[in-house]
Amino acid sequence: MEEVHNYQIIAKRLCNRCKKPLDDNDHGNRKAHPDCAKNYKKQHQKEKYQIGNTAKLMIQKNEAVAARLYEMDKQKTGIPFTYAMEQGFRFDCPTFTRKHLNKTVNMFDHYGYVLETIKGEILIFIYYESELFSID
């Protein structure tokens, strides 16, 4: 009489990154080769923080430009919008707002600005954080 054996076929586990077989002696919960997992994490971190890094660099640059403009306009007479742009000031930079004397100041980090139109000319007024008393 012929003996029938029911063997269970165990599928080879594949790396979820490179799709090559994982070592049979690896931990059962392992889903990727150590190098594949490390490279994936490195790539993911780079993609995840790329936007944050871009915003940080833009804020740092605007802070430097704002500091120069602030020194130029201590009397708060305003600086022409076009001059600020020529100096590298970016108005598409991420900001948060603070209220100061019924004005909304767009802040980067330590410096902020307000745009006003006076006699048909758009002027920028730069503020340092110590000048602002009430916070939104």
Query: Kindly state the mean pLDDT as a whole number?
Result: 87
Biggest beta sheet summary: 5 strands, antiparallel
Tally the structural domains: 1
**Amino-to-carboxy terminus distance:** 88 Å
Number of helical runs? 2
Helix percentage range = 25-40%
Structural class: alpha+beta
H/E series, N to C?
HEHEEEE
Uncertain residue ranges: none
Strand arrangement in the largest pleated sheet: 1-5-4-3-2
Radius of gyration: 29 Å
Gross morphology is: rod-shaped
Total beta strand runs: 5
Task: Work out the strand percent.
Answer: 15-25%
Q: What does this molecule look like?
A:
The protein has 136 residues and is α+β, with helices and mostly antiparallel strands. It has one domain. It contains 2 helices and 5 strands, in the order H-E-H-E-E-E-E. A 5-stranded antiparallel β-sheet has the order 1-5-4-3-2. Strand 3 and strand 4 form a beta hairpin. It is rod-shaped, with a radius of gyration of 29 Å. The mean pLDDT is 87.
Q: What can be said about this structure in brief?
A:
Helix content is 33%, strand content 21%.
Layout of strands and helices, then pairs:
Blueprint: H1 34-72, E1 79-80, H2 81-86, E2 96-100, E3 103-107, E4 111-118, E5 121-128
Antiparallel strand pairs: 1-5, 2-3, 3-4, 4-5
